[in-house]
Amino acid sequence: MDAKARDLNQIFDGTISFQIPLFQRPYVWNKEKNWEPLWDDIQGLLDYEVQFGRHRKHFLGAVVLEQLKNVAGSIETHQVIDGQQRFTTLQLIMLAARDLANGLDNEKYFDRFNDLVTNKASKVDYDHEKYKVWPTNRDREAFKALHESGAVEKAPLADLTLEQLFSEEPIEANGNKMIEGYLYFRKKLRDWLTGKFDEMDESGEEIHPEERLDALWKIISGGLQVVVINLDDDDESQVIFETLNARGTQLLPADLVKNYLFRKAQAESQNIEELYKRHWSAFDNDFWRTEVTQGRAKRPRIDLFLQHYLTLMMREEVRPAHLFESFKEYVENQQALADLPAEKLPTKSNLSVMPVTTEEQLKALARYSQAFQTFAEPPAGSRLATFLKRLEAVDTATVYPLLLLACDQLLPSKRWEFDQFLTVLESFLMRRMVCGLTSKNYNRLFLDVIKTLDREGELTANALKSILQSSEGDSVRFPSDEEFKKSILNRAIYQALAQYKVRAVLEAIDQTQADRKSENLELPNDLTIEHVMPVNWELNWPIPQEYLADAETKLKFAQQRNQLIHTLGNLTLITGSLNPSLSNGSWQKKRPELARYSKLNLNRYFYPFHEGEDLLEDWNENTIVTRGEVLFDSARQVWPF
Hints:
This protein has helices at 8-12, 31-52, 84-103, 107-117, 140-149, 162-165, 177-193, 209-223, 237-246, 253-267, 272-280, 286-289, 301-314, 323-338, 358-376, 383-394, 400-410, 415-435, 442-456, 461-470, 481-490, 493-496, 499-512, 551-564, 580-583, 587-597, 621-638; strands spanning 2-7, 16-19, 58-68, 76-82, 133-134, 224-231, 291-294, 297-300, 528-531, 571-574. With 641 residues, it is α/β, with parallel strands linked by helices. The protein has a six-stranded mixed sheet. It has a two-stranded antiparallel ribbon with strand order 7-8. It has a two-stranded antiparallel ribbon with strand order 9-10. Strand 7 and strand 8 (297-300) form a beta hairpin. The longest helix has 22 residues, at 31-52.
């Protein structure tokens, strides 16, 4: 048995045929489980190549091949014993890239991609040998059709817009997984080539699709790696297939990191047992291997830690699928720096000492892991616990590298400064959420924040505030009080945000409205959002007489009311849903119910005054705005500018 890591150019560039045996299952990969994660990995490599002009090798897994004795013809032929789904998918991606290059009238890259999917006709004896991969019989007709469709008409760039150039071609999947896969990757590649996935960049620089083709070729031909296991005549292919698919537990990136570091330490003649005991043993408990949800996927906690740790240390975004490769590159770069003379060293970090030796790498991992463990189990009632709960509403993990740095530098000796740091960060995130500003550029923004703090050598709340308030543009700015108030008064936040986000805003305001004389009780988890003026207001909340003069005036008023009822001023929290008849009932029936059954600070606003004039005898558009102003005053205290 011979096993070697090879890139796709090494695998597919020669005159060769990979045949999938008839006893293998047909093509079954799908969008959710297979194509989307694979595309995320590829897009990360593409973006990195475009941004930095280099790429990391990305490991796609292993394939097992058995060479045939040219029974099908004169060219080199292999059976795909294991990995046929992966091999087929890679061919679909390369077919899509080939066809898009054809659409760009780029002969060079059309030929290059075509050489990875098709053998030259002059080199083969049988028709099926012209395909680099020949699938099982059920998939052959679809595969042949994709090869021969051309997909996108060739046309000069000058004659077509990008939208026309990359328009949808008349090809239908009709439930065929292979065609669905081709269409999925062709659309993703097309959107990437036209810049649709680009994060907002204040520089406004655009990258031409033909420049992107060059990056696409570099990644597909040389950035993606597969371990190719070639079987000898004495190897039992069925036993190997069963072993690969039915036994064992998949290694985590942390397992590879551990193996890598301790092999280095062993080569350096260090005391392995002592290093493990002092710096790694804690990582081998169940806490770190527990799967937790972040974003749309569940991942082991140690994977999340490694991703955020590496992002912090490398000062660049690290994709989940690249953890081990990124870690290895980082360690090797750090050790290379140790050999440079002082005058050639890059700018030194002013906030933290960067590890160089293997032992220093292990120490740094152990130290920052303590901060990350605090995030998983924050002290009850602490400012950190409150921040992390509200961070769930913002739904971003891009702040964790910055949090790791702050936690490591400020705790436990500067706890007050740490709490103020969290307040600035939370204010920025929550104000932007309420104002409907994008979170798309947060990964780049918070990396820039780390770099700026590092240059200034000061990790304080004021330094963070100064950086965030100096940022301009919709993708990065810190909303002012004026913008914040306008959104609270006018934005239909109930419709614009998910309910758990709206609930987080109202819960935070409720906490700040607590009276010093009242008990400070933790809010229950089952609070529901209630519209004070109900969504179905027509029956018990009539339009005022002065707006019934004509149909246009009545319609305009109804539209204004339908907008206003979803603003923050008309929303509150209750501990249990009101009876629908009460919820949609008149103000005179609903108000006593809110006052009688709700003990929330938020709802003291609705209590009748026992002395003096009752200003809430009616609930209408004006009182909604007035309460919105009160809620803004509270929100401004929670999230100051």
